[in-house]
Amino acid sequence: MSKVTVDQFAKLMVDDKVGKILKATKAEEGLTPKQISKATKIPNNQLYYTLNKMMDADLLKIVKQEKIKNLTENYYSSLFLNQKTKYIADDDNVLNFSDDWIKEHAEQTLQLVMLQHHEFISALRETINSETDEDNTTSAHGEIDLSPEGEKKVMTDLFKVLNNAEKNDPNPDSKNKRHVKIQLEKW
């Protein structure tokens, strides 16, 4: 569980160093601080404070430690933040966090939403700054008037589409596949 407040977490999410470190440490085997410094061009003397803050916020994990003389070298990874999500959806069951559960886990819920928004904004920035015509990031927004039953049906239908997307891929043998993240938010 994160040792930081939502406000502290929000401050981390707007720190450019945090974004660079998250991107650099997606390797399963992790990176040492020296490797992170080289990949991000963040000087070592500015890195350790941010690494410690990210560890406190559960944004990094130490995936390996090596003894070098009398020192321990840590390898940091953020890969665990990018695990695939399976959505629960059938006619009677939509993934739904109860109000009580959200209240009990408010800090973690808000931090997860901020992390996902940070990832989306970073990807959108890369798409905007890209020299290619490839559109890797999309945002769609809408407002509709629905009954509670209609709202539940829309969410169930969307979860079904997400769960079946890989099996319904029109070109399942393509060598040009990429990891796609989709985030649904309703309020």
TrEMBL record:
Start-end of Basic and acidic residues biased regions: 166-175
InterPro entries: WH-like_DNA-bd_sf, WH_DNA-bd_sf
Organism expressing this protein natively: Companilactobacillus bobalius DSM 19674
Region span, Disordered: 164-187
Pfam families: HTH_20
Domain of life: Bacteria
Name of protein: HTH arsR-type domain-containing protein
